[in-house]
């Protein structure tokens, strides 16, 4: 909602829907805090957890209500003030270098970049603005557009990309074709591995495991043509698609296996994740304008999936050792439903599993077994010495 004072000051609050949404969530936080106090304080064992939970939800409720009713943008001549729930950021037009448009899982938002590295001011898109606000913002340079034009000019001047400016710009189209070929190849390799083609699983896993190395070398060799996780205004080709496909395929292959313990898998994965994060940090930072913490979170999300998938897939796909067979009694079974339906058989202690344990199975296997039956398992030592097991057909009884 926008208001205009007699002194031509413009005040913009959150849109009506946003204020209602924040108010409902804020009141829900208060209700949750009261519920924790009501149900948990009287129980000595849960008293500390209840109080801590109540304080957290109480703070969350206060924050959301304050965001709904205190947040506003005030434009007074050349000065802008942006108030969030607990503080206010101010800047004169002359002190603003420009703005950037950033994307998150909840949508896009602007960041005003102040001159001389004196700070950044986040500008949410949840405010109800008008033409006066857009006219004021038009005076602020678009830094993403400025960087795009500067990069295109640099490409036109690079003699290694062609003999004329037009040929050098045409190299961008060639880079896009290379990217499409890489994505297509990674999809074929992923399909060959996931659908368990015996002749393709090993080579496909090896090539998908090496994909991040090839992508990193390509981005470093031709930084004017290729980027990793770039912004929308960046004219270069984004190689992130191949990275996501390779990570998803390896992770999907890994989760099919049942590991005796996740401890060694975690150790190896953390090591790989750190190596990948360090190797890609400088490359991604050049192409993705994000705060340092946000950049690390984005990299950790991808590198974590890749690391777990890589370690688990290498351990299982390249394990050629002779497994040990076990006949294990089925003591029960259950189904869990969330975004998907998962089926589990509950097993008696066996081999390295010295306590009651459960085995994830397909729906057909779940229907086949009942409590009192026995299932046969093959225990593999693992290529990386991370033991894993899988159900097998039991030998026929004489």
Structural summary, described in words:
This protein is α+β, with helices and mostly antiparallel strands. A 6-stranded antiparallel β-sheet has the order 11-16-15-12-13-14. The chain has a 5-stranded antiparallel β-sheet with strand order 1-2-3-4-5, covered by helices on one side. It has a 3-stranded antiparallel β-sheet with strand order 6-7-8, with no helix packed on it. Helix 5 runs antiparallel to helix 6 (198-221) and helix 6 packs antiparallel against helix 7 (240-254). A hairpin with a 7-residue loop joins strand 15 and strand 16 (388-392). It is flat and about 85 Å long. It has helices spanning 16-40, 47-70, 131-137, 143-156, 165-194, 198-221, 240-254, 263-287, 292-317, 363-368, and strands spanning 2-4, 10-13, 72-76, 79-83, 88-92, 96-104, 107-114, 120-123, 226-227, 237-238, 258-259, 324-337, 341-347, 357-361, 374-380, 388-392. The protein has 10 helices and 16 strands. The longest helix has 30 residues, at 165-194.
Nutshell version of this structure?
Helices cover 49% and strands 22% of the residues. With 398 residues, the chain is an alpha+beta fold. The chain has a six-stranded antiparallel beta sheet.
């Amino acid at each position: 909602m926008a208001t205009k004072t007699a002194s031509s000051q413009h005040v913009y609050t959150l849109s009506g829907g946003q204020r209602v949404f924040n108010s409902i969530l804020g009141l829900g936080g208060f209700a949750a805090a009261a519920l924790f106090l009501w149900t948990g304080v009287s129980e000595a064992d849960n008293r500390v957890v209840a109080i801590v939970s109540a304080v957290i939800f109480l703070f969350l409720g206060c924050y959301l209500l304050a965001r709904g009713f205190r947040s506003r943008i005030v434009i007074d001549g050349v000065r802008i003030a942006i108030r969030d729930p607990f503080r206010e950021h101010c800047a004169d037009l002359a002190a603003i270098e420009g703005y950037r448009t950033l994307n998150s899982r909840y949508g896009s938002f602007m960041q005003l970049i102040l001159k001389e590295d004196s700070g950044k001011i986040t500008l949410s898109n949840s405010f109800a603005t008008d033409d006066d606000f857009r006219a004021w913002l038009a005076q602020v340079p678009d830094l993403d557009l400025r960087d795009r034009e500067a990069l295109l000019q640099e490409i036109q001047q690079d003699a290694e990309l062609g003999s004329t400016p037009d040929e050098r710009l045409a190299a961008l189209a060639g880079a896009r074709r290379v990217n499409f070929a890489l994505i297509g190849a990674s999809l074929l390799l992923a399909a060959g591995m996931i659908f368990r083609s015996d002749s393709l699983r090993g080579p496909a896993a090896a090539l998908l495991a090496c994909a991040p190395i090839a992508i990193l070398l390509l981005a470093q060799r031709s930084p004017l043509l290729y980027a990793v996780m770039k912004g929308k205004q960046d004219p270069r080709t984004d190689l992130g698609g191949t990275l996501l496909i390779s990570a998803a395929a390896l992770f999907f292959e890994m989760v099919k296996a049942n590991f005796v313990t996740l401890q060694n898998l975690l150790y190896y994965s953390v090591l790989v994740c750190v190596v990948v994060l360090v190797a890609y940090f400088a490359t991604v930072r050049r192409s993705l304008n994000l705060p340092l913490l946000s950049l690390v979170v984005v990299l950790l999300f991808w590198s974590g999936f890749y690391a777990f998938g890589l370690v688990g897939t290498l351990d299982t796909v390249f394990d050629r050792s002779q497994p040990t067979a076990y006949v294990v009694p089925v003591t029960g079974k259950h189904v869990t439903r969330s975004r998907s339906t998962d089926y589990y058989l509950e097993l008696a202690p066996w081999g390295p599993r010295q306590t009651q344990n459960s085995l994830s199975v397909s729906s057909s296997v779940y229907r086949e077994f009942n409590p009192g039956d026995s299932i046969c398992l093959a225990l593999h030592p693992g290529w990386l010495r991370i033991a894993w097991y899988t159900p097998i057909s039991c030998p026929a009884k004489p």
